[in-house]
Structure formats: C-alpha cells, structure tokens
Design brief:
The complex is a heterodimer of chains A (102) and B (398). Chain A is mainly beta. Chain A has a domain of 65 residues: 2-Layer Sandwich (Alpha-Beta Plaits). In chain A, the strands form 2 sheets. Chain A has a two-stranded antiparallel sheet with strand order 1-4. Chain B is α/β, with parallel strands linked by helices and 398 residues long. Helix content of chain B is 39%, strand content 19%. Chain B has 2 domains: 244 residues, Thiamin diphosphate (ThDP)-binding fold, Pyr/PP domains (Rossmann fold); 133 residues, Rossmann fold (3-Layer(aba) Sandwich), CATH 3.40.50.920. In chain B, the strands form 3 sheets. Chain B has a 7-stranded mixed β-sheet with strand order 3-2-4-5-7-6-12, with helices on both faces. In chain B, strands 9-11-10-13-14-15 form a 6-stranded mixed β-sheet, sandwiched between helices. The chains are: A mainly beta (102), B alpha/beta (398). The interface between A and B is medium-sized, with 18 and 23 residues.
C-alpha cells in the first residue's frame, strides 16, 4: 500500500484546486484509504473456506483478493464492511466482527 | 455583406448558434420550449448546420447531455424556458462547478401555478445562484449578439463557465423585429474553433465529477466563486471585442439618459426599451431622470452599479418576479445589499410588476417613476410597491 503520506483534502487551499475539480490521475483510489469508515470487518476462516471464490466475485468494491494458494484475503484498505462476502459464502467461512476504536 | 432581416428573438438565437457552428444541440422539444430548438432541428435536417441534434426526454436530460458533450470539448448549445429551466435546476449547478462552458438561451417565463408560461423573470431569479454567467437582452438583435458573446466568454480559457442568455418570453421570443446578421467570416474571426483544455481523452484518463468530503468541498466552492467573479473582466473585454468587430457595444450596466440624474429607474430585459420611452417623455418635461439597464446579472457588477448611481438620490428598481416572503423584489434586494455599506447612496424603492405576461406600458413606467419618487421623499413602511395590481398591497413588512 501507499508508502509516503498522501495529500488529503486539508492539504489543499482553494487556489490548489484543479479547474472543475478534475482528478488528473485517474484511478487514484487505489492509493486512498477509502475503507476507514468501516464499522465491521470480514474475517475469513481458512478451516471452512473451500476456495469457491464467491466472496471475490460478489465484493462490490474489489476488496477481496485471490492468493497464490487458492485462498482469499480481504483488502482492509478499501473494504467498506458491507458484509456481502459473509452473506454469500456457502460455507459460512466469513464472519463480520465489529471494528474497535482506534 | 451583413444583412438586415426580420426575426423573432428565438430565430435570432438559433441563427447565432448556427453561425457559431455549434457541434451539439440537446433539447427537449415540447412546451415550454420555444422555436429555438425547432429552428435548429430544421437547420440540421436541411444540412445548414453540421451538428449532432439530440432530442431528449426532459430538460434534466437535456442539460445532462450537454455536460457530456461539453466534457469532450464540443461547442454545446441548448435552449429552455420557465418550468423547463426549473426541471434542469440541479444539473445547472453541475455544469458550472465542473466548469463546462455550455451556452443556453432562456426564454424568461412565469412559473405555475396558476398555470402560465407567459413572460416573467421568475425562472431567471430561481436560477440566480447556479454559478452560471447570466446576461439579459432587450431585443432580438441582442439575443443574437449576446448568444455569440456567450460562447466567446464561456470558452475563454480563463473563464470556462456556462452562460445563460436571458430574453423575455413572448415579448421577444415570438415577436418579429429587424435583426442585422453579420457575415459568417466576421463571426468566424470573433469566434474561432473551441478547444476545451480538459476535454475527455482515452489516452489521458481523468476523473470528472468526483465527490468531495467536507475537508475539500468548501475550497472547491470558493475556487468556483472566485472564477465566476473573475469572469466579469472577460465579459467586459469580450463585449468590447464584439463592438470592435460588429460595431455594437455592450456593457454590464448601461446608463440611458442623463449622467448624474437625480432619479434613476433600473430595469432588465425587454421592458428596458419600454421604460426608455417613459424616460424620454420625462426628460423632455425637464425632469432629472435616467435609466439603468442591468445587462449582466451574474457575476453581479457591483462596481459598475456604484459608478452608475453616483450622485443619484432615488433609485427605483423594477422587478418582474416576487421573492416570496423576501425583503423586496429579488433584483432590488440585491441592489439594496450592494449599496448598503456605501456612505453616499440613493434611496431604493422596489417595484414589482409585469408578472405572468401582464404588460407594462410607457404610462405604467411613468407611474413607477412618479410614485417611486414620492415614496422615496416621504418614506414608506412597505418593503415593496406594486404596479398594475388590482387592490391595494400593504403590510408587506408583516
């Protein structure tokens, strides 16, 4: 994930705004921690997982990533905690647990 | 050679769009629409205009389509009126904040209920804060001229904002007047091909219209506000350039009659021409009187207004719209606000009339001037006065 500190909104004055607030680097959400408002996080239990990949298919935010060994892991940098992966998992291998205060 | 032809303001605006060689016209073709898209559709069908003509299912779609077209760098035009303008209301804000220089003519019409699409400024005033540059026209010639200027101003690389050209429904849109149409070559010189510097390009992907959380939204809006305010200088410069090319000069605030007159009447749109006849009549009687035709509505020309009312004792402001429950007519409220902190300022009297197509005659404007003067001299408890309304209107302060 992003190594150096990314600029956030509060780094910009109004003079720094692009005309029309255009984002000139398309797809830069990959660098942005867009999942930091999540209230629950998915935990995958490898004991129950049968590597079917439904969680990866259904995730609306492409926040489930396939691993080389056939299992899956969650990208908590972008995961919003919607819980769809847990709902669709036929083995009930994904549990949503509450995020705790940082 | 330029030619002088009889045109209603609708057809004059369509001619301007044709001579501007617009690339895309997206419009909803049914009431409250005017003859502008109808004429443009003919032009495209007859091969007089090489443009994509996109008839859409609503004004909301019309403006949304215009955004897409402008974002790829097309010279984009649409026209609407009254309720149609209201129907695209939220998309108007998107056009200005995304800095897409769409040009739109608005036939100013009343808003229902009771059902009316007659002339009125309620639609324009409802769009006041949408972030568009807004210009008012007095006649068909100006509808043509201001539409050309709108492209030039909006597309200026230092501006990049959408522009609304307002002219009165029916009084202008459906009335044939002599209009001078310039040579195409002169128009091409005044209005070269449009190059939008941020046009969508598959080789240079960008994100447009992203969302802004509270830590950046206010900065985005202030940047937009500064851009709109700065556009006034370009409007003035392009009006001059237009004058140098076509020999008709325009200004944000236009003073008619006496410089430094004791009483000034302020009007917008086609009624300014009627009011001018009233001014002439009164001037001939030896009265110290003049008229301000407020042409540029947004950005509001504060400095030019202050300059115009220097030494003026009474300023009578005529509104064709009610700001329901407000402190006066919408234009007069803004003018009072612009003058409030000035040491030397005229007394402002707010008049409301000409609603929903009700005519204002020369006599009516003479009444407005006389009555306005009387009220300014003896003072009044009313927030605004009315003209041509049956039955006394009092207790406006509540």
């Amino acid at each position: 994930m992003a190594e150096k500190r990314l600029k956030t909104g509060s780094d910009f004055t109004w003079r720094d705004m692009e005309v029309g607030n255009i984002i000139t680097e398309a797809g830069n959400a990959v660098l942005r921690k867009t999942g930091d408002w999540r209230s629950e996080r998915p935990i995958i239990d490898r004991e129950k997982c049968n590597k079917c990949g439904l969680c990866w298919l259904y995730c609306p935010d492409a926040a489930i990533e396939p691993l080389n060994d056939g299992y899956y892991e969650t990208d908590l940098f972008h995961c919003k905690g919607c819980g769809i992966c847990a709902k669709v998992c036929p083995k009930e291998a994904i549990t949503m647990i509450e995020e705790e205060e940082k | 050679m330029s030619k002088r032809v009889g045109l209603e303001a609708s057809h004059a605006a369509a001619e301007a769009a044709r001579m501007a060689d617009v690339d895309v016209v997206a419009a909803y073709p049914i009431t409250p629409q005017t003859h502008i898209p109808e004429r443009l559709a003919e032009m495209v069908a007859d091969g007089e205009l090489n443009a994509a003509y996109i008839p859409v299912d609503s004004e909301h779609s019309a403006m949304s389509t215009c955004l897409g077209a402008a974002a790829v760098g097309a010279r984009t035009f649409t026209a609407t009126a009254g309720p149609g303008l209201e129907y695209m209301h939220n998309v108007l804000y998107v056009a200005s904040s995304m800095r897409l220089p769409v040009v739109m003519t608005v036939a100013n019409r009343a808003l229902s209920a009771p059902l009316s699409i007659w002339g009125d400024h309620s639609d324009a005033m409802g769009s006041r804060d949408t972030g568009w540059i807004q210009i008012f026209c007095q006649n068909s010639q100006e509808a043509f001229d201001m539409t050309l200027c709108a492209f030039r101003v909006g597309e200026d690389p230092g501006v990049l904002l959408p522009v609304m050209v307002h002219f009165d429904g029916f009084h202008l849109t459906h009335v044939t007047e002599p209009v001078i149409l310039p040579e195409q070559e002169k128009v091409d010189r005044f209005l070269p091909k449009f190059h939008y510097p941020f046009a969508l390009d598959p080789d240079k992907p960008m994100s447009l219209g992203a969302f802004a959380p509270p830590d950046i939204y206010p900065e985005a809006k202030i940047a937009q506000e500064v851009a709109l305010r700065k556009s006034k200088a370009v409007v003035i410069q392009e009006f001059d350039e237009f004058g140098d090319t076509f020999d008709r000069y325009y200004y944000p605030v236009e003073l008619y009659g006496m410089q430094g007159a004791k009483t000034l009447l302020l009007t917008m749109g086609s009624f300014s021409e009627t009011a001018k006849i009233a001014i002439d009549t009164k001037k001939n009687k030896g009265e110290s009187i003049g008229l301000i035709n407020l042409r540029l509505w947004r950005p509001f020309p504060v400095e030019e207004l202050l300059q115009a009312v220097k030494n003026t004792e009474i300023l009578v402001v005529f509104d064709r719209c009610i700001s329901f429950g407000g402190p006066g007519g919408p234009v007069s409220s803004e003018i009072r606000s612009a003058l409030y902190n000035e040491k030397e300022k005229p007394k402002v009297v707010s008049f409301i009339g000409g609603l929903g197509g009700r005519d204002m005659s020369v006599k009516d404007f003479e009444y407005v001037i006389d009555q306005g003067r009387k009220i300014a001299e003896k003072g009044s408890n009313e927030l605004f006065e009315t003209v041509g309304i049956r039955g006394e209107v009092t207790g406006t302060r509540g």
